[in-house]
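Researcher: Go.
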Amino acid sequence: MEAGIPILPIYCLFLSRRKVLCTWMFGWRYSGLLKEESVAQAPNQRIRNRGQSVQVVEMRRELASKIAAHVPRPGAQATPIPGLTLYRRTEPSPCYPATYEPSLTVFVQGRKRITLGGTTYLCDDSSFLLSSVDVPVVSQIVAASENVPLLSLHLKLDMPLVREILTQQEFQRPEGSSHNRGIAVGTTTVELLKPCSRLLDLLDAPQDIPFLSNLIQREIVYRLLRGPQGDRLRAIATLGDQSQKTAKAIAWLRANYAKPLRLEELAEVARMGMSTLHHHFRGLTAMSPLQYQKQLRLQTARERMLIEGLDAASAAFEVGYESASQFNREYKRFFGQPPMRDVKARRLAGPEAVSD
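Model: Structure:
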């Protein structure tokens, strides 16, 4: 755990120029101290670059330069390449709930903390984050400034493409079911950074995107599958695996979050027994299906209020709540303050307060 940035059982205390106090957002299910995992897994983070290849460091700097050139101002920048978004953040953020879809995020500058269940993952300029399934997390930028902004690229993973690559001969080996979380942090390598850099080069040659983008993304998926975190991605993509069945239930729940949750129906979608589904669902997402649905409803309601200007009662009913008072109670517990007060604060804070 980093000195000066403690993780406490009830509150995540984060001091920045704005002195933000971040309230823990999952009070209804939290128990125990958080476990923190960093990509380096070293006792002293100040020497994390020691012994690394000079080529790796140079590749990271090159990729950082390319991202900065395409995102000159703070925020998220969608690109003409399908599924690719670039990010630039120039100040730390409070803890913020987000949902990570199957994707790869490569960090080349700055530092970010991502919490799923009882585990906190620390991502820095040597890290990539692999999400193999839709998971709700708590995200917090802990190191970013005008001079040294947080820079990252986010690439959605095409799961049919992953399954296609897995049919290749070199991946034909028996695998057991994965019971790991749906996200993992790894150390970036030259083999992974090279295709990422070439993908960004296509932004300067848009005529090449339709043909070359898919080829480069295939290489990126190949590198992920060949790396230490590949088994997590394989488990989700492999038809018949328990993790893949659970991912199917998660996808159904995301598409039908406003409907009353019937575990029998969800288990039928996944073609699993209810107890088996509950076990694997919690293993991937660190929460039960009901808790997952609550987070989807609350996050969607917040977006509707922020973007469409809905009042709290209307947003509550549109995401499936039958009681406005219950919605208000759960919203305050999750976000730390009542709906309209929270929405007003988010608008005043501006886009930099939102951690992607």
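Model: The first helix runs from residue 54 to 70.
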